[in-house]
Amino acid sequence: MSEQIFHDSAHDSPPRLKWWMGRAAIYGALILWAVICLFPIYWTATTSFKMAPDVMKGNMIPWVDFTPKWLGWKSLGLSPDTIWTESTVRAEFLKRFMNSAITALASSTLAVVLGSLAAYGLSRFSYRFGVMRNSDISFFFLSQLILPPVVLALPFLVLYKELALLDTRIGLILLYTLTVLPIVIWIMRDAFAGIPTELEEAALVDGLSIWGAFLTIILPLALPGMVAAFILSLVLTWNEYFFAALLTSTNANTLPVMVASQTGSQGISWWSMAALSFAAILPLIVVGVALERYIIKGMAAGAVK
Amino acid sequence: MSGQGDLLHVVTSDDISATRRRAGRALIWGSAGLLAVIALLQTLDQTGMVEIGFANWRPTLYAYMTWAVCLCWGQVLIRGEQGKRVLFVLPAVLFVVSLVVFPLLFGLGIAFSNWNLSSPDGRQFNGLDNLRQMWADPFYWNALKNMVWYTLAIAVEYTIAFGMALLLNSQIRARKFFRVAFLMPLMLSPVAVSWMIGKSMLEPRFGPIARLARWLGWDNPAFFSTPEMARFTIMVMDAWTFIPFMMIMLLAGLQALPKEVTEAARVDGASGWRGFWEVTFPLMLPVSVTAILIRIIFKLKLADIIINVTAGGPGGATDSVTSFIFREYRDRSNVGYGTLLAMVYLVIIVIFMTVLMKLAERWTRPRT
What we know:
The complex is a heterodimer of chains A (305) and B (368).
Chain A: H1 16-47, H2 52-57, H3 71-76, H4 88-124, E1 128-129, E2 132-133, H5 134-143, H6 149-163, H7 169-193, H8 198-205, H9 210-221, H10 223-239, H11 242-247, H12 255-265, H13 270-290, H14 292-303
Antiparallel strand pairs in A: 1-2
Helix pairs in contact in A: 1-13, 4-7, 4-10, 5-7, 7-10, 7-14, 8-9, 10-14, 12-13
Chain B: H1 18-47, H2 58-79, H3 81-111, E1 113-114, E2 124-125, H4 129-135, H5 138-152, H6 154-169, H7 175-187, H8 190-201, H9 208-215, H10 227-256, H11 259-267, H12 272-299, H13 304-309, H14 321-332, H15 335-364
Antiparallel strand pairs in B: 1-2
Helix pairs in contact in B: 1-2, 2-3, 3-15, 4-15, 6-10, 7-10, 8-10, 10-12, 12-15, 14-15
């Protein structure tokens, strides 16, 4: 057995060098793109700890190039030595943060509730509203996705003024719900289509009503889809700027509006802008890292039938 | 309403008494009547014919909400089990109709009037004047032209996204890390991105990208000075945020491809480049079309980055339609003209998307 009789021809044996080069190219491309994706976040995070000369000199690596200072965070009132003292900037920031959180959470919840119900109904029963049948109703919902926000913005501005809803959270919540509803319905339709109807049939035979079967049997099964839809809506509503900029002024400003308004007024006070931007994106970075699975699931729902 | 075609067959023995049916009808029509009366009173109050002293239109809103709830409840009273099914879809339909269809009709009214919110004259119907003004407005046409450029940039975004999806789908280590890293740009708010990249990293004197450009031999990096360059920079920033979106959709498509087909292709000798063009790419066509269509829809809403980085400058070279209308309102509080521009944009989009979807349907239909 010492002598190998059959040799692979040169064509069949794994081409070592070529293989390694291929690997290197793949990882090189992956790492390059990862750097492109992550560097702005790194840059913002580090800039918030820099002082003016560090920014000018373009120092990048903390403790090697420059010593981190709390300057940026101090201007937000969030550094260790200012966190226990009164700070108007911090109060302002927290107010905006709460506005963003409340509007994003409330509108996502509302959209998931309305959207799940509608998607379930559309996936199980046949309706007829006038000339609209199931596919028409589905299309009606999904077509809202095409509607650009700018078309609704000015009529809503006038309507809200008349209804005294301008600069209120409820006004924003209603609009945000509207903008994410088609996406939720899209994801949930997919999720419900994957659940066999035999389950409800069994539940109905056992004496549950339709709503009982839906709430106790189907909803728990559709939960992953609902979480995916919720997270995706959360991302979209947290980042929304256009409506918030038009429809709010002092009370219900969200965080993006605050970030946008600071860009102009403070000039190049880079550290505080960096701190503010970083504080604004941090919640979603955390959400993204922790719940990446659901986001990908949600976005994939529409792609693969 | 027959139960035909339901996926879920439910047999119910509903016997709804005539009184219950009548109660349901009374509920719906009663609340509708209440809504009508309140709306009428408010209109009269608004026009000054009756003096009641409403501060705003809230009462009508509440009456409308009451009517919506009564409508849902009435369905159950009148139609029993069928009504309970309607209850799944009806709330969402009512919500969308009241928040989209009604404002759109209202917007049509605004679009044909001269209405400056800051002037005390209020709204004046001016027929087709806005349309004529639009026809002669070079900035609006310029913004529309820009939208064409921005939309064409999707081809490049798609190529990069597809490449990244292929890489992520190959045999690699630390796949989860790369997936999370690639997803990150999508999570960031466009406003923060416009500061992080547009204002600080692209700062011509000491932004890191400007530094890199200088190191690569570009003496005087300026990213927003010439119209072409500014437009290109905006495209890149928007691409940066949205490539992950397409990438994830394409990755999902790649992972759903049947393994047998690609393996069979490899056995038949279609490897590497050829295997991709002749097997993977055609199989991915439906997913690609969906991803591109959705991306186009999002692209047509592009505004946040432009508003915050360039505000349309230099000379309107980077304006998208949305950002143009936004400034039209911000600078001149011209609601009437802005709404007309938006309405025209909507019509263009609807026509464009319908044609595109028809074409897409034809392309993705399996060839026989």
